[in-house]
Every structure is written in structure tokens, then in C-alpha cells.
Amino acid sequence: MAKDLPGRMQWAASIAALLILSGAASAGEHMSMHVPTFQCADSGVLRVTCVGTFLDGRSAAGITARVFDKHDHLVFIGTVDSQGHITFRKPDAEFHIVFDAGQGNVLTLLASDMT
After folding, report:
1. Do 52 and 87 meet the contact criterion of CB atoms below 8 Å apart?
2. CATH of segment(s) 35-113
3. C-alpha angle 79/80/81, rounded to 5°?
4. What are the extents of the domains in the chain?
């Protein structure tokens, strides 16, 4: 299509295409930076503490965390604090934690993945 345009219009069309492509790339990069990472550990006295960040190093503050037992029953729901931490009572049996950062960025950790 750009070949059919006269000089300046062809140049302008090429610049517009580059801007669109670079915008799409940076939007993709922004989306990947919104992916949360969490590490959870048994903090003793039947408590579990998780610490989370985004890939760009920002705190995962505000992310919703849901804890489900082995039968997929919700046993805890909370929000990650301003320091990126969340602590909850450890369920009696197997469990998993679902961290939802929005925009389709969901991370699930199994109890067996904890340190």
C-alpha cells in the first residue's frame, strides 16, 4: 500500500506504521510487567506469609489473594498490604492460593510449592 503513495505520503505512512508497531510492543511489555510473582512460606504457629512483587520490582500491594482448601472451598480472602505481604491461617490440609492482579494476570501457588 505504501508503494502506491507519492513521496511524502509514503514517508508519512511508514512513520505511522512504525509508531503503531512500537505502541503495540510497549503495550505488550506493560502487560508483561503487570504479572505478579509471589513467594510463600510457613511462618510458624499455623500461619503462612506471602511476599509479592511485579516483574518490574513494584510491590504487589492491592492484589486480591484467595485461599482454597483441597475441596476448592474458599477459606480466606484478603488483600496484599502496602509492603507486598499477606499472612493467613494455614488450612489443615492441602490448599492453594490464587493471586489476582487483574487484566487476566492470575497466579496460582500450591501449598507444595511453598518454601
Report:
1. no
2. 2.60.40.1940
3. 110
4. 2-32, 35-113
- Cell 503503531 found at: 20
Q: What is the pLDDT of residues 11-67, one digit of tens each?
A: 334 333 333 334 433 344 444 556 788 999 998 889 999 999 988 888 899 999 999
Torsion, Cα of 101, 102, 103, 106 (10° steps): 50
Non-local CB neighbours of 68 within 8 Å, separated by 6+ positions = 74, 75, 95, 96, 97, 98
Most confident of 53-57, 89-93, 94-98: 94-98
Q: Are 110 and 99 in contact (CB under 8 A)?
A: no
DSSP bridge partners of 51:
39, 85
pLDDT of residue 33: 57
The DSSP result for 76-91, as a single string, is EEEE--TTSEEEEEPP
From the list 59, 44, 56, 48, the residue with the least C-alpha distance to 89 is 48
